Amino acid sequence: MNLISLSLCFLTIPLGFFSTHIEGKKNQKTWKLRSDASYITWEVIQEGKRLTRGWKDFTTAHDLRIGDIVIFKHEGDMVFHVTPFGPSCCEIQYTHPNIIKEEAEADDAHSFSFDYYFLAEVTASNLKEDKLYLSVEATTCTALNKQCQEIILVNKEGNSWTVSLRFSESDGMFYIRRGWRKFCLDNRCAIGDLFVFNVVGDGKTTPLMCVIQRG
């Protein structure tokens, strides 16, 4: 799964995915993109580490905008299923092919259809330890499972940070480590800052933990 903040004219392929699946391989210059919004399979050309020709047509057809996020699920043979999200990680729903609407307002946490959101506070201890515990209710979240090794933090601007996710058997809680401190530093957080996070995922692929409010 790949998380990309949206650009309308081209898309930069994440380095990790490029190194693992693309670099050094031949005959993989055309990506075939599918989505729930259309019956069409879109062909997009890869040039270096970017998707270029065809990408603008795809974004236009899906009414995507700067700041939106798209998740690519590789189905093999350079075929990808693309799921678009709004900047606050509200999944863009398709009520009918080619008819797209935003499911929820960004600033209303209670309108989210996802099954887990929580309040996190930046503290001196969790910065020092580079560790943030999720509340015990996270164990009932279908987006998470004990086999998850990573989670992607997404701020309201659509920028992302991949961090480690672990489950403590002794505490019965999920926690984030190796990346929480960098997320806070990059977002210029101060002690006492609060975030409302929404967790998005299907329980199989790397989940997202998206900022929907900051105070």
TrEMBL record:
Tell me a GO cellular component: nucleus
Localization (cell): Nucleus
Keyword Transcription belongs to the record: yes
Signal peptide residues on this chain, from the entry's feature table: 1-24
Gene3D superfamilies to which the protein is assigned, alphabetical: DNA-binding pseudobarrel domain
Source taxon at top rank: Eukaryota
Chief location of this protein?
nucleus
Q: Where is the TF-B3 domain?
A: 1-88, 117-215
By its UniProt entry, which InterPro entries does this protein fall under? B3_DNA-bd (IPR003340), DNA-bd_pseudobarrel_sf (IPR015300), REM_fam (IPR039218)
Recorded hits in SUPFAM superfamilies, A to Z, give: DNA-binding pseudobarrel domain
Keywords from UniProt, A to Z, are: DNA-binding, Nucleus, Repeat, Signal, Transcription, Transcription regulation
PANTHER family reported for this sequence = B3 DOMAIN-CONTAINING PROTEIN REM-LIKE 3-RELATED (PTHR31674), TF-B3 DOMAIN-CONTAINING PROTEIN (PTHR31674:SF31)
Supply the name of the protein: TF-B3 domain-containing protein
Please give the organism.
Answer: Brassica carinata (Ethiopian mustard)
